[in-house]
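Translate sequence into structure tokens.
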Amino acid sequence: MQQERPGAPLPFEACENFRELGGYTGCGGRHVKYGAFYRSPALANIKTPADRARFEALGVRTVFDFRSEKERTLAPDPDFPGVVNIPASAMLAEDGSEVDFDLEKLLRSEDGIRMLTEGVHESYARLPFGNPAYRALFGAIRAGQTPILFHCTAGKDRTGVAAALILKALGVSREDIVEDYLLTNACRTTGRDQFRGMLERAGLPAAQAQQVTEIATGVRRESIESALDAIEEKYPSFEEYLRAEFEIGAAELEDIRARYLV
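Result follows.
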């Protein structure tokens, strides 16, 4: 589905921040192919017949669900005919266990609040490395299992980093990647005031409630830049990153770009 501008949200009724990656300028002045890559929040938000019809019209073949097992259990994706849904938790602790993104649970402890406020950049800096979910995603991209949709719960953090990696692989500029990431702030508008009010009623000081609200419902430039910076600090080039993390060499990368740039 071609949009008027790259990154524009698709017209879903109850699934905010459902977007595609098509249209951005990549290698050699070519553009990312429309209709190949979609990003969204949890598909449990697709509840109306109209939204379901919109989703099915996209022809998505493969869905990557980056949420933890608990998140998936609480709000399972609906089944769609002909769609392969792959559960692949994208946020793992250092010991390889899934990170529990139960927001209500996190807000009940000082450590949880600290993770939401002070630990965000650290989490982003870990996401690009040793991540089996992203490895599986790039494997599907190499295999041409598109159209692909990938999502987490809000469609902004784990999903946002995955989108950045795909765009970077296709040669999209860093500034366009960051701007695409920041579009979440314009797309996710429902419920922010209510969420902040809930935090204040739970006892959080107004300033801290505002900070947590911004992190829980929006995104910040520093977050995605921490992920991109971490890659640049560890590897001499993004091509070397792709080779080391996803076994994508020069020939495979050229094939990906030939397939998904027009």
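Note: The radius of gyration is 18 Å.
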